[in-house]
Structures are given as structure tokens and as C-alpha cells.
Amino acid sequence: MTRACSRPACSAEAVATLTYDYAASIVVIGPLSFVREPHSYDLCARHAERTSPPRGWQVIRHAKLAS
Ligand SMILES: [Zn+2]
């Protein structure tokens, strides 16, 4: 089972899930989740690395991502 990166024009395999916590202004990047949640996006390794948060937000990166 593979899922593709959710970024436009990117068809790489997703390895991470990015979740926006709007209440706390935190972006969480963690291992690919098996359950799709609201406000979450699947990302490939490259896009997970490059993701930067909106101004004023914090980023929390969980343990090493599989590559
Ligand atoms: Zn990508």
C-alpha cells in the first residue's frame, strides 16, 4: 500500500504525514499515518524536509522518517 505525496505536481511516494494544529499554531510532521485525518497531508521525503511553517507557527518533527 503506497500513497502519493499530496503536493501538486509531485508523484513521489509519501513517507510522512503533516498535520496542522490550528488551535495551537503547530505543524506536526511525523511518520505516515494510516488513518487520514482532517487537516493532514501526506508528503514525500523531499517535501517533508522542505516544509516550513506559516509565520508564527512552530514545527514539531517526530523521529526520523523512513527513507
Ligand atoms: Zn512531494
Which spans of ≥5 residues are poorly predicted at pLDDT below 50?
Answer: none
Overall pLDDT level: 88
Largest sheet: 4 strands, mixed
Overall strand count: 4
List the total number of helices.
1
Structural class: mainly beta
What distinguishing features does this structure have?
binds zinc ion, 4-stranded mixed β-sheet, mainly beta, DUF3499, 4 strands, DUF3499 family protein
Textual characterization of the structure:
The protein has 67 residues and is mostly beta strands. It has one domain. Helices cover 9% and strands 30% of the residues. The protein has 1 helix and 4 strands; from the N terminus they run E-E-E-H-E. The protein has one helix at 45-50; strands at 16-21, 26-31, 40-43, 58-61. The chain has a 4-stranded mixed β-sheet. The radius of gyration is 11 Å and the shape is globular. It binds zinc ion. Zinc ion is lined by residues 5, 7, 10, 12, 43-44, 46-47. Residues 5, 7, 10, 12, 43-44, 46-47 line the site of zinc ion (ZN). It holds the Pfam family DUF3499. This is DUF3499 family protein. InterPro entries: DUF3499 (IPR021888).
Summarize the structure.
By secondary structure, the chain is mainly beta. It has one helix at residues 45-50, and strands at 16-21, 26-31, 40-43, 58-61.
